[in-house]
Amino acid sequence: MKQLTPCPTKIEINEVAPRDGLQIEARFVPTEEKIRWIDALSTTGLRRIEATSFTSPKAIPNLRDAADVVTGIQRQEGVAITVLVPNVKGTERALACQVDEINLVMSASDSHGLANLRMTPERSLEQFAAILDVTKGSGVFINASLSTAFGCPFEGEVPEARVLELVEKLIGLGIQGFTLCDTTGMANPAQVKCLCEAVLERWPETPFTLHFHNTRGMGLANALAAWQAGITRFDASLGGLGGCPFAPGATGNVCTEDLVHMFEAMGVDTGVDLDALLEITATLPDLIGHDVPGQVVKAGKSNRRYAMPATSSQSS
Amino acid sequence: MKQLTPCPTKIEINEVAPRDGLQIEARFVPTEEKIRWIDALSTTGLRRIEATSFTSPKAIPNLRDAADVVTGIQRQEGVAITVLVPNVKGTERALACQVDEINLVMSASDSHGLANLRMTPERSLEQFAAILDVTKGSGVFINASLSTAFGCPFEGEVPEARVLELVEKLIGLGIQGFTLCDTTGMANPAQVKCLCEAVLERWPETPFTLHFHNTRGMGLANALAAWQAGITRFDASLGGLGGCPFAPGATGNVCTEDLVHMFEAMGVDTGVDLDALLEITATLPDLIGHDVPGQVVKAGKSNRRYAMPATSSQSS
C-alpha cells in the first residue's frame, strides 16, 4: 500500500439513508416525515442526498411515495437530489420531478445481478442505453452504481479487470459518474486502494464515489484507504441504516456521522456540520422504530470531556 | 499522511480479553473456565496473551484468581504469557508464577492517572523504578502501557511531545517495550500515523504495541494507519470485550477476530488461525453471559458464500 497521490483535503458525502436505508425497514415512514427528515439533512452541508427510488411500489413498498417525496422537499442550493431508477418508466417519473441526478444500479457479477435486479450485467447495459436515450438533453447527471464491485456474496471474487471493463463500457454509453459499491461488506483496505487507484489513474476526470458497508467492521478503514488513493466522494447512511438482505445479522452501510467524525478529526473538510447531523441521528429511533448501529451518536465526539469519577478501575 | 516505510508483511497479536475484557464484566468467570479459555486461545497462533492482573482482589474482584489462572494454564511454545501488575507486591506475586512478561500501566495525563490508578504519572514513574528493582535479573520482559496516549477523556488533548518524553524517561528506567493505548477511543488515523512514525523513528529497536478501542468506530482504521506507519504489534480483545468505565454506551477494545480478518484479507500474516479463533468467540456468550460486539463472528468471513435468494431487493 504505497502512497501514490497526496491525500485530499476535502471530501463530500452523498447521504443514502432515505433510499438505501429506508427500503429495507420493516415499517413505512409516512411521506411527511420523510420530507421533514430530508429537509433537515439538506441544511447540514451534505453535498448530495439520494432521496428515494422510482421503483415499482410492489418491489419496494417503503418507497412507493417517491414522487411525493421529491416534489415535497425544499431544494437547497448546493445540495443535489439524486434518485435511484431501475428502468425507463422510473426515469420518466424521476425527470418529471426535476431531480438533479439519476442513479442507475447494476451488478458487476452475474448472480448478484440476477438475485438483486433479475437481470445479468449485459441486460443492465442494454437497459442503461435505453434510459440514456430518455435522459438525453435533460441536463440531469447520470451516475451508475456498480454493486458487488469488491466481491459477490454468491460468486466470490469479482476481478478488478471486470470492474474496469464495465466502467469503460458505461462511459462509452454516456454514464457521467460511478459509485463503486461494496454491497455486502467484502472489501478490504488493500483491495480498495488498488481499485481506487486503478480507476482514478484511467479516468482522472470522472467522478468516482465509494459506497461501503460495515458488515465486517472495515467500513471506516476502507473509506480511509479510498481517501488515501485520492477518492473524495463517499456514500454514507445516517445512523448506519441499511444493510444487505443476503447477510442476516450484519450491520449496514457505513455510518454518515461516524465517517464525517473520522475525517473531520483528521482535519479533512467534509463540509458537514457534525453537531447538526448528530441531532438528526438522535431522531432516527423515533422515525424508524428502532436503535441504529452508529457509534458516535452513542459515545459522543472524540473531543467530548467527562467529569472525573469517584473510583478507580485500572483500564488500559 | 505520506507513506514513509513499506507496510509490514507480518504482524502479531496480544490477546487482552482475559484481563482487559473480564475485569469490567458484571460476573466472575470461574477459574477453571478462564483456564480452559486461555488454553484454547493459546493454540490459535496468538503471540501473547495478557492472562490476568495481579491487582488487589478488592480493586478487581473478577481477577482475584490471578495466581491460580497463571499456574493453571498450559504454557505453549511461542506464546508469551503477560500479566498486568500495579505495584511491587503484584510484581512479586507475578514473578512467583513464572510469567514471561509483566505489563505496567500508567497514564500519559494527570487526571486519568488519578482517576484510574490514584496516582499522577510522576508517581507512576517512581513506582515503576521500585518494580524494576524487583524484576532485575529475572529475565522477565517489562512492558509499559501508556494510557490516554492519544487523548484524555478528562483533559482532552495529550501532546505528542508528552508521550515521547514519557517513553524516553521509561526507557531510561529500563522499560523494554511499550503499549500506546487509545484508552477511550479518541484517536484518529492521522494522529495514529504521526505518533507511530515518531516513536519508530526515535526508537527503531524498541517494540511498540498499539492498543485501540472501537468507541467511535475507528478501531480498525486506526490499526490500519498504525500498520502503514510500520507497527507490527497490536493489542486486541476477543469478541471486542472490554470497554471504558468512563464512556458508558461505548463499544470496547478493538475486536481480535475482526482485526485478524482485516489483515489476513489484506494478505498480511497475523500468524492466527482465524477459524479456530472464531470458534472460541462463538463460546463467549456462554462464558460471560451476553452477546459481544465483534462483527465477523456474526457476518462470517468476507469469503463466505451465500445461496441465491428467491426474491430481488435492489440493494446497492
UniProtKB/TrEMBL annotation, chains A, B:
GO MF assignments: hydroxymethylglutaryl-CoA lyase activity; metal ion binding
Domain Pyruvate carboxyltransferase, residue spans: 11-278
Domain of life (superkingdom): Bacteria
Keywords noted in UniProt: Lyase, Metal-binding
GO BP terms in the entry: ketone body biosynthetic process; L-leucine catabolic process
Signal peptide as annotated in the record: none
Gene3D superfamilies in alphabetical order: Aldolase class I
Database matches in InterPro entries: Aldolase_TIM, HMGL, PYR_CT
KW Cell inner membrane (keyword) present: no
Family affiliation: Belongs to the HMG-CoA lyase family.
NCBIfam families membership: PRK05692.1
Protein name: Hydroxymethylglutaryl-CoA lyase
Organism: Vreelandella sulfidaeris
